[in-house]
Amino acid sequence: MIHWTRQLLWRLLAALSVALGVIGAFLPVMPTVPFLLLAAWAGGHGWPELEARLLAHPKYGAYILDWRRHGAIPRRAKWLASVMMCSSALMLWFSPLPAWLRGTVWLILLVVACWMWTRPEPPGAPSSDQGSAG
Question: What is the CA radius of gyration of the chain?
Fold first, then answer.
C-alpha cells in the first residue's frame, strides 16, 4: 500500500509539472523547461514511461539531458530568462505592493539570475549566439 501511494504521489507531481510546462509553452510569463525538469525527475521516481518520453522529446529532451549530465543551461535560455526577470521586476515597480515585498522579490530575482549565469553552457554549444540562427 505504501509503495502504491508513493508512486501515485510521484505521478501526481510529474503530471502537474507537465501541465505547468505545457502552460508555460504558451504563456511568455511562465517557464517551460524548469517544470519539465521537475516532471522528468518525478517521473524517474514513479513513472519511468513518462520520464523516457520527456527525455526523447525532440525539442525539450536535450535540455533535460544537458541539465542532468552537466547542470548546463544554454546561453539563449539565460538571456531570455534574464529579460523576463527584468520585465517582471519593472512591472513590479509599478505595482501597489508594499516596498518590502517588492524589494524581497527583486532580491530573489537577482539571486536567481546570478546563480543561473554561473551554470555552464552545454558542451558543444557555440561560444556566442552567432550559431543560434538556424
Answer: 17
Cβ-based burial of 35 (10 A; exposed 0-12, middle 13-18, buried ≥19):
buried
Q: What is the pTM of this model?
A: 0.77
Q: Evaluate whether 74 touches 125 at the Cβ level (below 8 Å).
A: yes
C-alpha to C-alpha distance for 50 and 54, rounded to whole angstroms = 6
Whole-number Å distance between alpha carbons of 92 and 86 = 10
What digits encode the pLDDT tens for the residues 33-51? 899 999 999 999 999 999 9
Domain boundaries, the chain: 2-70, 75-122
First to last CA, the chain: 51
Buried (b) or exposed (e) across 90-121, using 16+ Cβ within 10 A? eeeeeeeeeeeebeebeeebeeebeeeeeeeb
Instruction: Determine the distance from the C-alpha atom of residue 75 to the mean position of all C-alpha atoms in its chain, rounded to a whole number.
Output: 14
